[in-house]
Amino acid sequence: MILSLDMKTAFVSVVLGHLFTVVLISAYRYGHKKDKLINTFYVSKWLEVIGWGLVIFRGSVPEYIYLSVVNSILFAGSAVETIALSMVQHAYNRKVKRRYLAFTLFSIIGFNILVFLDNAESTRIAFASFCTGMFLVYPVYRMMTSSYTSKLKRLMGYLYGIVVIGLFSRSAMSLFTGESMGFFTPNVYQALSFLSLYLIMILENTGFILLYKEQADERLIQMATSDDLTGTLNRRTFIEQAESYLTQLSRSRSSVSFILFDIDHYKNINDTYGHIAGDRVLASMSALIKEKLKDVGLFGRFGGDEFAILLPGMDEKQSGEAAEQLRQAVERMQVSSIPVNFTISMGIVTLDRRFEPDVSKLYKWCDQALYEAKRQGRNRVVRIRFTNEKQGVIEYV
């Protein structure tokens, strides 16, 4: 095993790796609309190109200036890159931003204090390794523990977790073993450090691009399946998923309930307060109902102000109580720019094991119940109960 490396040549390969990533991102950014996530990662790559590039010129300037400038740039690059990793997980907010800013300042100021007051190599390496590892802790924790994470994110979390352990181990070994952990000291640690640095570069660049592609795919799926205004399932997706649910429920012979509802006098809201206010009503009401449903069943917009809810496994009593709770919640809610409350009318049907489930039939029957709710004066829940598939009795719930 070759323990002595030409480290300037080694760092040139690392710089070129990051530089190629910058070039490819630049080509992608040309002609595309501004993307904050890509721009953040782009900035981090430039910082790493500059930081590792300056390492090549070690010895050309006083040591303390070289150490201060290079490591300050690399700390900033690590911070920006881990911010990008948090952004790709939708885990970046003002609180996280403040913490990253504070820790970046701590890292840069703390390292420079060590350089100008102590300048012991072991202390510098321990501090730098520890801080770099700490930058990664938050996004790695999110990737490894989030219940909604993908297999790709979880795998990257584990790989980055190994990187964090390696950085913390390097920090501890630098302090307590007496061995030199510097990149320019020929020993086994020099070779391992460079190999780790090169593998980290591949993980950073390739992994982030894959995570970004995964996020883009998720956005496309959401755009194809969701209603733009309300964030609920669109009609086509609701029907497809409902049919899949119904097939499973028919096999288990479980009950299923279907609710169809719309907003009472919705046209008057649009005519009186404007279509923007009407859209706000639809969006606010949908957000409220999604919160109340808590991911139980399906919720979709069928068109205009008409919505549908599928409640798998709910019998007449349970679905009736759920529908009434939703109706009351909507009746109590208030929407900005709308000085009056609004209400909804709901039609509901529950099927048991005697009926073959069919979305079109459920819609037809609930539409009859919804019409009856309107006829009775609106702002109510009306259930349609069938003794067989051809004859039914509508009764007020």
From TrEMBL:
<feature type="transmembrane region" description="Helical">
    <location>
        <begin position="12"/>
        <end position="30"/>
    </location>
</feature>
<feature type="transmembrane region" description="Helical">
    <location>
        <begin position="123"/>
        <end position="143"/>
    </location>
</feature>
<keyword id="KW-0812">Transmembrane</keyword>
<dbReference type="InterPro" id="IPR000160">
    <property type="entry name" value="GGDEF_dom"/>
</dbReference>
<dbReference type="GO" id="GO:0043709">
    <property type="term" value="P:cell adhesion involved in single-species biofilm formation"/>
</dbReference>
<feature type="transmembrane region" description="Helical">
    <location>
        <begin position="37"/>
        <end position="58"/>
    </location>
</feature>
<dbReference type="GO" id="GO:0052621">
    <property type="term" value="F:diguanylate cyclase activity"/>
</dbReference>
<feature type="transmembrane region" description="Helical">
    <location>
        <begin position="188"/>
        <end position="212"/>
    </location>
</feature>
<feature type="transmembrane region" description="Helical">
    <location>
        <begin position="100"/>
        <end position="117"/>
    </location>
</feature>
<dbReference type="InterPro" id="IPR043128">
    <property type="entry name" value="Rev_trsase/Diguanyl_cyclase"/>
</dbReference>
<dbReference type="InterPro" id="IPR050469">
    <property type="entry name" value="Diguanylate_Cyclase"/>
</dbReference>
<dbReference type="GO" id="GO:1902201">
    <property type="term" value="P:negative regulation of bacterial-type flagellum-dependent cell motility"/>
</dbReference>
<dbReference type="InterPro" id="IPR029787">
    <property type="entry name" value="Nucleotide_cyclase"/>
</dbReference>
<feature type="transmembrane region" description="Helical">
    <location>
        <begin position="155"/>
        <end position="176"/>
    </location>
</feature>
<dbReference type="Pfam" id="PF00990">
    <property type="entry name" value="GGDEF"/>
</dbReference>
<keyword id="KW-1133">Transmembrane helix</keyword>
<keyword id="KW-0472">Membrane</keyword>
<feature type="transmembrane region" description="Helical">
    <location>
        <begin position="64"/>
        <end position="88"/>
    </location>
</feature>
<feature type="domain" description="GGDEF">
    <location>
        <begin position="254"/>
        <end position="386"/>
    </location>
</feature>
<dbReference type="GO" id="GO:0005886">
    <property type="term" value="C:plasma membrane"/>
</dbReference>
<protein>
    <submittedName>
        <fullName>Diguanylate cyclase</fullName>
    </submittedName>
</protein>
